[in-house]
Structures are given as C-alpha cells and as structure tokens.
Task: structure prediction
Amino acid sequence: MEPILLYDTTLRDGTQGENISFSAEEKLKIALRLDDIGIHYIEGGWPGSNPKDLQFFELARRHPFKHARLAAFGCTRKPGRRPEEDHHLKALLGSGAAAAAVFGKSWDLHVTRVIETDLEENLAMIRDTVGFLRQNGREVVYDAEHFFDGFRRNRDYALATVAAAAEAGADVIVLCDTNGGTLPFDIGPVFAEVRGRLGSVRLGIHTHNDCGLAVANSLAAVAAGAVMVHGTVNGYGERCGNADLTAIAPLLCLKMGRPCMSADNLKKLKSLSRFVGETANVVPMHSRPFVGRSAFAHKGGVHVSAIMKTPAAYEHMDPELVGNQRRVLVSDLSGKSNVEYKARELGIELAGDGIDSRRIVSEIKQLELGGYQFDVADGSFKVLIEKLTDNFQPLFELESFRVTIEKDREQPCQAHATVKIRVGGKSEITAAEGYGPVSALDNALRKALGRFFPDLDTMRLSDFKVRVIDGSRGTAARVRVLIDSRDQDHIWSTIGVSEDIIEASWQALADSFQYKLAREKALRSARQEPLPLKMA
Amino acid sequence: MEPILLYDTTLRDGTQGENISFSAEEKLKIALRLDDIGIHYIEGGWPGSNPKDLQFFELARRHPFKHARLAAFGCTRKPGRRPEEDHHLKALLGSGAAAAAVFGKSWDLHVTRVIETDLEENLAMIRDTVGFLRQNGREVVYDAEHFFDGFRRNRDYALATVAAAAEAGADVIVLCDTNGGTLPFDIGPVFAEVRGRLGSVRLGIHTHNDCGLAVANSLAAVAAGAVMVHGTVNGYGERCGNADLTAIAPLLCLKMGRPCMSADNLKKLKSLSRFVGETANVVPMHSRPFVGRSAFAHKGGVHVSAIMKTPAAYEHMDPELVGNQRRVLVSDLSGKSNVEYKARELGIELAGDGIDSRRIVSEIKQLELGGYQFDVADGSFKVLIEKLTDNFQPLFELESFRVTIEKDREQPCQAHATVKIRVGGKSEITAAEGYGPVSALDNALRKALGRFFPDLDTMRLSDFKVRVIDGSRGTAARVRVLIDSRDQDHIWSTIGVSEDIIEASWQALADSFQYKLAREKALRSARQEPLPLKMA
Result:
C-alpha cells in the first residue's frame, strides 16, 4: 500500500484559531520541529495575504529542512485575470516553496454568491492556476474547498472542478470538508465517485472538527484511498479546529497499519504537542488523546488495582510509544491500591508493619469529601501520608501570623503580613508586603525561613489556583487553593481547603515549604552532608 | 425507527476525569438540568462505592425528576457470593433508583487476571446479578465492560457474557469500549455479530475518547442498531473523556435524522454545557463542537465577508439551533454593534447624541485584554457603561476599609473588617467578622449600607468564583473574582480583576451593591416612591 503523507497546516490554518498567533520566528521554530518529527509537508502560510507570512518564507529559505517539503498557500487566479498577472500567484512563486497549495471553489453556491462569477469561469480559473504553477515547476496540491458540501448540492459540478484540476496536472487533489459538517459515513461513497471520475490521481483529505469528527473523517478517507492527510498540531484551527495530527499519526501507524511516522519520531509526539502549545501560549488540554497529561491517568480504584496486575486492563496502548506516561491519581474514587501505588512512587512503603492502609484510605476519603483533592497535589499527599504514619518531622512550626489589607478611596489595596515561626528551639518573626495577602504571607514566611535554610532561594511558586467548592453559600463558601512550586529540577503541588481563603492558602503554602525542606534534607542525607541550619 | 435514548453519566463516569469533582448538592443541580433538557437516563453514581454518591441518592429521592429515569451504578456480585449478600447490590437497591446499571466482564483477560476467577463463574455472576435486580423490580442496563477488546481476543466468550445478561432479563445490553481503543470501522461488524447471537434485545453503546473517536464510534453504533447512547456533558471523563453528549444530541437530531431531543431542548445545549463546566469550575473549551464559544466564530477576512453574503458559506448549521451564536472576531465595526446591542438590552441607548461608542468599545476591549470578561458579568457591565457615559450616580462611596486576618498555631484563621462609607453627605463606619476576609468585608459593608437602605435585606450573594488569569506568576498572578447576587426576583453578576484577591473581590462586591441599589432606586422612581434614606 502507498505510504500516507502527513501535511501540516498549523502555521496557516492553525493560526485561524481564536487566540492562536505566531511571529515569523515562532513559525520557523515550529517548522523545524515538524521537520524533525518527520512531517512530509509543512504549509508555512499565505504569502500573498500578509506580510508576516512573507517574512516566514524568507526566514525558511535560510534554514532548509532535512526531510519536509515546504508548501505555500494561495487561491486560484481572480476572475477575468491571467495567472501571470495575479498578485497571489506571483507571491506563491516568490515564496521559494517547492510545493504550492491552492484552493478553488467546488460548491456552485460559492462560485455564484461569494466570488460572484460564473460556473465556467471558475473551471477555467482552476485549470489556469494549476497549469501555471506546474509550468513553473511547482508541485501542486489542489485543495477542493467545500468539496463535500458542493458534492451534496451539485454533484456534477463538484466533480467537474476536481477534474479540471487533475487535467491541468495537479499532483494531489485534496477533498476539503471546509465547514466541518460531514459525517464519516459520507466519506467513502464520495471518494469512490471521485476515484471513478478521476482515475489514478492521488487524493488527500482536509477536515474540520465542527462535529467532533475531524479525526474520524480523516481515517475514513484513508480507508477509502486518500494518501495525504491535512491537519494541525493539537488540532488548532478556526471554530472547532482542524484534524489533530497528534492523534492521526499514532492512529494510522499503530491502529490502522498505515505507517506515516517512524517509531522513534512517534515518541516525540507529546513533546511536539507541548512545544506548539507553549509557543501559542494556550492552556494545554489535559484530556487530549495520546499526548495529553491525563491521556493515561487512572483515578478509579478498580482501574488502578487492575493496571497494577496488567496495564492492558485499562490502557489501549503503551503510553511510551507516543512519549507519554502512565499516571495514577489519588482521589475519593480511589481505593487502597491507588494510595499504596502513589505512596510507593514517593518512596513510602505502606504495606509495611503496623501500618493500617485501610485507615489511611478512609482518612483521605474523609478529607476529599471536605474538598481536598490529592490527585492534583502530590506534595500535600506526601506530607499527609507522613502525618498519618507518624513519620512527619516538621522542619518549622507556625507560632502566629497577622495579615492586614488596607484600602483608601480609589487607591489600590495594600497588604502586609507578619509571620512568627519556630525552627528547632529558636523563633523568628518577620514582616513583608506583597501583591495581596497571600503574596505578603509567602514573602514573610520565605524571609523567616531564609534565616535558617539557604536552599529556599531556588524555590519559586509557579502557579496558584483557587476554586470555590460550594459556591452557593456566597462568600461563606469553602475554597480550595492549589499551589504549584518548583526549584531547578523538580515541580510539586500542594493544597489547602477552608472557608477562609487565607487559611486555605496558608495550608498550601506551609505544605509546599515543608515538602521542599524535607526533600533538601533527604538529598543532603543521601550525600551525607549536614543540614545547614544557618542559625544552629 | 426506534427513538434513541440518551443516557448521561456525567455524575458517575464524568467524575472520573482529572479535576472533575462535584458535591452531592452540585450533583443534584446538574441532575435537575439534565432532566429539564430531556435526557432519558441520569446515572447518579455508585452508591456502594462512596459516601458522596449515597448522599446524592438521598437528595434525589426528595427531588423527583419530571421525565428522566434515575440510574444507580454498580458491578456484578463478588465471585462465590450470593447476590442478596453482596454489599454493592444491596446499595443499588437501597439507592431507590428505578434503573440499575451493572457492569460485568466480557474480556477473558479481566476475568482471570483482574478479578481472578474462572470463566464459568463470571458468567454465573452476570446471570445472578441481572436476575436478582430484575426480580427486585429494577430496570437493568447491563454494561458489557471491555466488550470490543474481549471480542477481538476471545469472540465466543465475549458473546457468551452478553448472552448470559440477555437470558437473565437485562433490558438493555450496552457494549462498552472501556479503553477507548476501538476504531469506527470495527463497530458495525461487532454489532452485527451481537445482534445475530442475541436476537431482538435492545443494544446500547458506551465509548471513551482515547483515540479522539468517541463521538464517531457512538454514531457508528447507532447506524448499526444501538438505541441507547451513553455519554457525558462536555465529554468529561477519565483519561481523554467519554463521548460528548453535547455533540451527540445535535448530530443525531440534526444530521442523522434520529431524533432524541426536542428542538426546544436542543436550544438549551450551550447553556447546559456552560452550567456543568462552571459547576466543575473547569476552564471552558472554546473550540468544543456545537456549544463552544468559538464554535461559530469567524476570524479570517475571506470567511467574514462570505458569511455576510450567506452564512451557509462557512457554517455547517444555524448556531441558534443549539443555543449558540455566530461571532465575528475581526472588525471593529462588529465590536461596536455588539456593544450597542448589549447596552440596549440593559436599557442604555449608546447610539444617542454625543456618545462616542467607538471610544467605549475600545475601553471595554482594553479591560477585557486585562482579564475582565463582561459577557459573564452583566451587573458590572451596566455599571461600567454608566461610568463611561457619565451616567453613573454612586449610591455610596468608599472612604476606606481595613481587613485583618490572624492565625495562632493550629487555631483557625480569624478575619475582621472595618468599612467606612459615605452616603449623601453622611459617613458611617462599621466592623464585622466573617468566614474569611471577603466574607468579613461583605458583612461590614452590608451593615454600613443597612443604616441607609432597608432593601438590602433581601439581597444575597449566591455564588463566588475565583480564577487565576495568569497562573505562571505564582502569588503575584492576577485573579478574576466573579460574584453572583440575587434578590427575590432577579440575579446579577459582577466582576473584579486585580493582582490582589481582596481588591478584586472588593470591586465585584461594590459593583454588586451599586447595581442593586440603582435598581431599587429605578423601581421606586417608576412607582413614584421616594428612596427611603433611613437617615436622611
């Protein structure tokens, strides 16, 4: 069987997504990653349409790809104009891209109502454009825009448009479900008719996700003979997005026996997904198939005890094949086995002597009933397990804190905190300000602890989340605070729950510092260094 | 053709999703919305597995549904135990739910490796469990867990398990793609074999989205004869989630001619999606098919000019059919008409003399860039428009406030607030405590205003939401506070944004009180009553 070609349009159709936008330099970085992972075609932009895309093609000329072909996007010539006079087509040639992707109209409604020309002229536009680009040595990918809609309304005309492109020498004819309204059942029959009309020309598929079916429609097209699949990383794109290549590549390779990416490259998929998401500065979708953080996360106790016996029990594939990993979450749905599994990951053996792991599970369930959620707070979970097994050695103790917030008329709020702690036999009181009460507390605690522990310099709070658990009680509702912290080589999360947002924040803050200090202590003791109690 | 039954498991399988968790009260609220929109079955939880679910079933008994049937979830009896002795089965009966959904093993690997019994005993467990529940008058929905995986590995045994359930009287046999690894092509042939073996029993489908194919697989099952579809609102669920009912309902009704929800109810889909997302406090997925904020948003210039000629050019359906709306993201002009439209809804005419609505639009855009979101805060939007058009008449002014939070050792935090305000020419200072700083502020402000305005007695804060906008800056991140308030006959929302959570809360609180007082004043002036300034 012919191999499948992956055609990425993250840099063009992907940027039609709400909130998705890349600079020319960012586009280049993404293109280099796409090349590295073995994508066959990279559509860089529409050089005739905007200066940023022009700039990208200039940059790309100086950074040739290892494997991928670069494609530039454009449309058929304007009605009544010769191709060589058409600004968009000149820009396509000028871009230096080896492949030209041009879209033309397949749907009579678009011909007469949108570009407002007649049906014959549209056929001529397609023929002329494809022919002109071929004469100029470009590989031509012809995008039959709205093909499925056009086919439903005026089958003969839709077929005539792709026949025009094929006769003019298009290398690949791509059937586009531009509005995303087509069902998988309709794909096969349409491909069969096109194949019947066009003979052996190579066909491709370009789908949108308006019905949540972009991936399914792409697979249906491959099953029906398509040899090129268009899509974007993470499915970014206008409205509900394009077909997600991070799902299509593993599906074709691992489930359909239609290889399109090497096993080594598949292992880079998760990191490609993250990289593009970070570059776009979009909140990652944890539930994204194959590459999301939750894609192989297990929460239910029944599931966890089963995967401990055999991972296939609740995993449709080995997560490492796409560079992802299994995660076990601890929550009110979980049983003894989640807790034991998780504790073992943290280096604590619960099955040991005298420890009643059933009691521990029931305490955790009680806390979760009250709003704690340990599946997202590994740091607090460790501190809690230590407390429940009498292994907790507090590295500091709170004597007291005071936080004051003041506001005068239109002036912004001012927050101050004083914190008094005890470390070993010594106590320390400090004060600090901050962006708000929690920030002031963080600063004061850090300052107080800094007198005893120098390692804290490398620790940062990197994320802060607040959720009201029981909103219907207004400002008397309980809130859950989640804090992510990091140092040079480690990330951990801690949690606090209270009706008082400051109390909840304090719990999460205190756990985070306890966790960090305990970790430093363990590392030092592994290296046999003494704990540097500055004031000891 | 037989109508399709929608079976919602948001409250059970949905809560397996990472970060998805509901209190019993929240579950009830969601269940009532699901009932209202015409979902046929609502799976409330697993009463034998955790106390929160038990609590939900108790609540649900006091709030009977209008149309929906309530289902309780559980598993087949334990190996070697009689059904009447099985704790889980007793809990199913005790829940009071009319339907019992029980899952049993279809895959021989699970029988021998996970529950560690023999293949014959598993068949007996299925038969006994279904029979016992039927004898006790329950409608039985039998979930054939891992049916597709089992069928691939040991077809005869998988078929024997569903035959056992059917013979014991199961009302519906649901084929589950538990691991989410099945492709749409495989669904039809498997259904055909099951139909051949079981005859006329009703079949259902339960899919997971690990391959991004949950919706496609559900549609394929309906095409192959399934009459019940399991799924969750927004596709929430373990790993990559379950089949998304907010896509499946419109697809079946509008695209496949298999009605399962009335046209009036379909129009509530978007608001159901929002409600469940807000209750879970999960960041909404804008690109979600049908119901997402971007699902009908147009960005590209070519597309926008085309849909202005004919919306079908780039829309696969009318967004209003699912309660959504078209959004145009590009032009300043459209922003202006949006704002004018929204202002008109609130009774403010912006097109009037001397008002520069372009400037207002640009101020609003600046604020939204900074994190405000006025589409969810009508109260603050009204106050803002009044300020921008010099129509704002503050009914009170803040002189100052002070909030103090104190904590000593293990004692809970204590919060106090003093608030000084000015109303007319008079000022008033009060103090109050609260569950936390915001609650203390709310109480103190309410007490101060109460001296002047008696109408405040009927006003309550009914919801309080906090979201960190820019998490990566730790406790210096900006937070957005949303407050919902209500009185006897009205609900309004207000917003505040700041790096300081107390400042943000104050903005939302102050707007809420201003809004309420202005509304009372307008109502009184319509009735020609004087404003009852108690101390006037």
About this structure: Residues 330-334 of chain B have pLDDT under 50 and may be disordered. The radius of gyration of chain B is 28 Å. The first strand of chain B starts at residue 5 and ends at 8.
